[in-house]
From TrEMBL:
Belongs to the FBPase class 1 family. This is Fructose-1,6-bisphosphatase class 1. InterPro entries: FBPase_C_dom, FBPase_class-1, FBPase_N, FBPtase. Mg(2+) 1 binds at residues 84, 103, 105. Its EC number is 3.1.3.11. Homotetramer.
Length: 320
């Protein structure tokens, strides 16, 4: 079976990007081991601190962040990094050619219940003469690579370098990621949706009507029944969408007027949008294609509607 390293070297990917992606994969292997250890590895529970977004940091959020930060800082190709758990951009090597944004641990509320969590990476090109946060202010369209590792019953790595979406599984026998799908395809149609319905009363009218029509099923204008899933880890929900199709939504809500959106553009929405688009799906906010958004802040949040092309298009109709 082809390893990640073999795949990267035989598919015309820039040699430096290959090296960076191998470093990201190494991070995934190490975090995967910590996740597997659970309480025995001392990684469960919360810390005393909050991140810049006012969220209590779990121990594993901090451990995963420190591990990735150390590995990336030691990689001369990395110019700077931005993380969910870092208030500011961290400068690394001024002549490095890559900017890396990451969510060290996605699905933090799942850690202590032994449910799905993952790590998400987005790689942008460094910009000559532009430093700090300003360098990261590029639309997702500029991403050189997007990748996540999902720590589930198997550890899985999904990757796109702009030429389709590819899936690997970690082989526990030799610690290598092995190719399992070289052309991930999201079916255009689906009968499965994912949204946190506890926020229903806070959604905007467009999302209210769209979900109401899904719930009426066969008896309503959609004339078919829909199933629902919610993993509470975007990485798990997107993995399901890449595996069998579906529509995943985290729309705008008015629960907390100071925070109308939940998911972060730079290290959640953009990389997932690239992986989904490269597999034939669509990723939008409802009003704008995610990867076309011009960022203004590394921790900026956006609405996310992604997945099976025809179903996302149907949902977007409600937003017109
Ligand atoms: O708490 P909710 O509303 O179920 O939200 C779940 C969403 O929040 C997130 O967990 C946010 O990510 P973090 O765990 O990295 O903060 C997403 O992965 C997930 O889709
Ligand atoms: Mg996250
Ligand atoms: Mg996180």
């Amino acid at each position: 079976m082809q390893t990640l390293t073999d795949f990267l070297s035989s598919n015309g990917i820039d040699a430096d990007l290959q090296q960076l992606l191998s470093t990201l994969a190494e991070c995934g292997v190490e975090i995967s081991e910590l996740v597997r250890g659970g309480a025995l590895a001392g990684v469960l529970g919360a810390t005393e601190s909050e991140n810049v977004q006012g969220e209590t940091q779990k121990k594993l959020d901090v451990i995963a962040n420190d591990l990735i930060k150390a590995k990336l800082a030691a990689q001369p190709l990395v110019n700077a990094l931005a993380s969910e758990e870092e208030d500011y951009v961290v400068a690394c090597h001024s002549d490095g050619k890559f900017l890396v944004s990451f969510d060290p641990l996605d699905g933090s509320s799942n850690i202590d219940i032994n449910s799905l969590v993952g790590t998400i990476f987005s790689v942008l090109p460094a910009q000559n003469g532009i430093e700090g946060e300003a360098a990261f202010m590029q639309p997702g369209r500029n991403q050189l690579a997007a990748c996540y590792m999902l720590y589930g019953p198997a550890t899985v790595l999904a990757l796109s370098t702009g030429n389709g979406t590819i899936m690997f599984t970690l082989d526990p026998r030799d610690g290598q990621f092995k190719l399992v799908d070289e052309a991930v395809t999201v079916p255009a149609d689906t009968a499965e949706f994912a949204i946190n319905t506890s926020n229903q009363r806070f959604w905007q009218p467009a999302m209210q009507s769209y979900i109401a029509d899904l719930l009426v099923g066969k008896e309503g204008k959609r004339e078919k029944n829909f199933n629902m899933r919610w993993i509470a880890a975007m990485v798990g929900d997107v993995h399901r969408v890449l595996s069998r199709g579906g529509i995943f939504m985290y729309p705008q809500d008015s629960k907390n007027v100071a925070k109308p959106f939940k998911l972060r553009l730079m290290y959640e929405a953009n990389p997932m949008a690239m992986l989904v688009e490269q597999a034939g799906g669509i990723a939008s906010t409802g009003y704008e294609t995610i990867m076309d958004i011009q960022p203004t802040d590394i921790h900026q949040r956006v609405a996310v509607i992604l997945g099976s092309a025809n179903e996302v298009e149907t949902c977007l109709e409600y937003h017109k």
